[in-house]
Amino acid sequence: MGAFGGSMTFTTFHVRGEVEPGFRDRFLKSIQKEVFRPLTVEDELDETMGWVTIEHPFDVELDYDKVFFNSYLNLALRIDKWRIPTPLFKAWFADAERQHLAKVGKERLSKREKEDLKAVVTATLKRQLIPAMKVIDLSWNLDTGIVRFWNQSARIHEVLEDIFETTFGLTLIRDTPYVVASHLGFDDAQLDKLPELDPTPFHNKGLFLVMDDEPRATVTTEEA
What we know:
By secondary structure, the chain is an alpha+beta fold. The chain has seven helices and nine strands. Strand 3 and strand 4 form a beta hairpin.
C-alpha cells in the first residue's frame, strides 16, 4: 500500500545537496549496491533492509525503467525482521532445557549453557518461520527535490534518512513550516518570526456529537 494504491498518508521530505549532471546512471549503480538482501538463518543480524522495485517487493532486479518514471525516482524500502513470538520461544526453550538437563545429569544450567541453548532454539525456530516483512513506497520528484515516503514512524524515518544518504550522498530534511518557508524564499527576519506564530485551526473547536439512549444525535457548537 502506498504510492499506487491504499493509504494516501505519507511524510514529506526535502532533499538537501547538489544533484550533479549524469546523476541517473550514478544513482542506479548506488541503488543496486544497496539492494535488499534476504535474511538467512545463519545471519547474526535480526533485521535487514534495502531497496526493491516500487511495484513488487520481491523484485530486486533494479534497472533504469523500474526506477525512473519521467521526472520521478520511485523505489520501495523493504525491511525484514525476525520476530519469534515470546510464548513460542519460551515453550521451545523450556522443552530444550529439560532435555539437556536430563542428558547431562544436572539440575540447573550455567549462564553460558543458557546462552548457548537460546542460540540453538532461536536458530531452530528461524528454520520454521519466515521474517516479518515491511515494504514502504518512496517517490522522489527530481525536479522539485521533494520526497514522499509512505510511513509515519519516527524510527523508520531515521532508517530512511541513513540509507538515503548512503545511497545518494544527499540529506533528507523532514518537512516543517520553517523548511517550507525557507524554500519559498522567506528572508532571515521573516524566518525568525515563525516560532512566535500560533497555528490557526480550520475547524470549529466546539463541534461535537452527543449521543444518548435515544437513536438520535445532537450537534452542539460553541458561540464564535
